[in-house]
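User: Sorry, what's this?
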Amino acid sequence: MSYIVLARKYRPQAFSEIIGQSHITTTLANAISQGRVAHAYLFSGPRGIGKTTTARILAKALNCEKGPLAGPCNVCASCNEITQGTSLDILEIDGASNRGIDEIRNLRENIKFAPSKGKLKIYIIDEVHMLTQEAFNALLKTLEEPPAHVKFIFATTSPHKVPPTILSRCQRFDFRRISLKDIFDNLKKIAKAEKIGVSDEVLTLIAKYADGSMRDAEVILDQITSFSKGAIALEDVVRVLGIVGEDVLFGLSGAIRDKDAPGALKLIDTLVNDGKDMVQVIVGLIEHFRDLSIIKVSLGAVPLTDMGPEKIKRYEEEAQRFTVEEILYIINTLSNTIDFIRKSSLAKVPFEVAMIKLTRMGPIVSLSEIAEKVERLEKRSKQDVPPARASAPAAPTASQASPAPAVAPASADKAHAASPASDRADLDELLSSWSRIVALIQTRKMSAAQYLQRGFPVSFESGTISIGFTKADNFHKEALDSAEFKQLIEDAVREILKVNVKIKFTISDAVNKPDSVVKEYPADDVSGPGAEERPSFNSSEDVDPIIKNALEMFGGELKEPERGASR
């Protein structure tokens, strides 16, 4: 007798033998017992989970000579014929190769004939979604009101491709993926019956690789049994299936952890030379980091992984070297790499680029930490803001304005001492208020504001503000270096910040003016003292000497810009 593969040899022959689909088998058995069998069923779900097998068992239960029975006897002639595939009353049709309207017309012509031996004529159409639209239309009327001796059972892996008009005429059952534990238990039972030497670790790996398909798991076990002469070793499974070994996965994650790009590239090169599929390698690495994340967030609880104690301990040690945010970033990067590989003809290069990127990534801060930092900065900024002041007095008009008398150093000190202003301020507060200070100076001395815009505060220590200029701006520094201009700046700082200061100017090539500190400030936008009255733009004393020379050379004149016009 020819060899029968394990998937056929151990195919379930009763509802009770079907694994992982109790919600369906119980419903069908009760329907038979209560005499409530529908005329059409649709079985949907992934491959290898028992759709066609369930359809055959249902057919046997309905046509059993002792039945209909909730469980076929598997002894009578009808049950044996259905098991062997020789029954004339059970017609299995492949929807992929018999998908046209002509085949459905033939089916409609044959439906009218009574079954040859059994009680019912049952049509099992596999992959029914492959039928053409015309074929479905031809089937509609027959499917809705078939003869009493006819039952339909459709099976499909793509129920969304079946027209709603067909779905509405069937009782639909959605089959589930079989759990890893159920697959493992069934493989262990088969291995024991076939006297195959295999460890639980190997069976677990096969069950995991089958991805919920019992048939795939049985085929893999059959294939590896043929490969191994004696007991099946874990290395045999890795070689036959092309699975990436655990040591390789830990090697790649270790390279990411240690920022070892050369080491990661060497591992990738070795995998390519061994003929590994890069997509499968990346998928294995994603599952590896998935296990790390599950163990890390489980916090000592039973993790959602199928591992032995020793393997869990190894993963726990590795998980401590990554943050959850880093693991999620790595998984996302690897997932994008798979998409890139599938859209191009490259495989090795995108993986190498991804590993270089991951080995060079910096620390990843969680959103909660960012939120905490922002909250702390907001609190600090609120604490550093000076108390609100009453509206500033109006600036004197042009007729009332008079140049301030020169103040001797001693009298100036007395004036400062008599001032109620506070002497506490820091450089950050000064920088944040610098634009207001320059704008206020512009209302009083435009040329001073123009010169001052070329520098910015570099230090604020012991009541002295140091304003820095680059060597290229030495002209502006010298233009400001007078008692009158210094007094003007000191008064503006005192009015804005309520602090008494001294001003000095410095030259340094290291001065880097931040964009956010000083920009051009139109007098129209100034609020505060002196905003109501501006000195004339054409006043000769406020015109830069360079501009004066240009006007004299070209015979030009200055014109007052309109208010609100951009400069």
